[in-house]
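Appendix C reproduces, verbatim, an entry submitted by the partner laboratory led by Prof. M.T., so that reviewers can inspect both the input and the predicted structure.
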Amino acid sequence: MRLPTVRLLAAPQQKMPATSSIITLRRGLHKWQGKWLHKKPANDRLRAFFVWALDAWPLIAWALFIWAWPLQASATHALSTQREGCFDERRFCFLLSEKDDTSGSYVIRVQRYIDLPVALTLYSTDLGYKAHANAFLANNDPIVLGETQSPSRFFSTMRVKWTVGNISAAHNSEYRYASPLQPQQNYPIVQGVNGKFSHFGVSKYALDFGASEGTPVLAARGGIVIDTKRNGKKGGPTPDFAKHANYVAILHDDGTTGEYYHLKYEGVVVKREQRITQGQLIGYTGNTGFSSLPHLHFGVYVAKFHGRYQSVPFSLQNSRL
């Protein structure tokens, strides 16, 4: 959080008139004081100014102090009592509040500001021998994670990883998903379950549908948009391109998320917290992220701590899968 900066500025220096004559009001009459500037020596004027400044300075300094003191006190109080650090467009924030004792410690809390679940892990040397703490933000109540003696050290060294979704999700295995590309028979699965290229481990149960760039992507299941990315421009066949992938993630009513990846640049047409129905247009296919050709990656996931996730088996309508 940036605190206001108090600056004490000197009064601007006044510029004397360029003319050699000035007008003064005396007894209601305008009287010309011809050649006044030339008659009064410059040294006398300068000496008079310094005498006036020395006499008036204590009063000026006191007025500036009275003006600035409330701002300084407010800034100092805010600095000593609470600090804030927010992530992902204020999806959640870390709040540091000074304890009501003489220890000089600050309590570390985390709180979400968007009504969507998120699992996060905080890494900090202030958290003891494990040096990390997990928090599942299921509601807007703050969660205490630990304490620190130095807010500046905490925020300069801490790290956080998070995954949207519910860590306690139990996937409804009876639900049959619509194909996200229609008509279904026109878009073959080019990499399925246990695919050797990238569908193993946590993405074991994901599916890749072959499709040219710009193909409409439809929601395979209804829910609430929990996350999106639309500004990625790069794509390539190695994992270092993964951060450039555009996507839509939809939270289902069982706590799982349906995730649609490799959308084209600016190819997302929904926004976070928007409610979606099955079959609704959510974006357009592309080739961004960890991708060797235009296609759509779709999977159903459960959130885990440490920024991890796990895909789960699911079934498509009108398919053996």
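The longest strand covers residues 257-268. Additional entries are available on request from the coordinating office.
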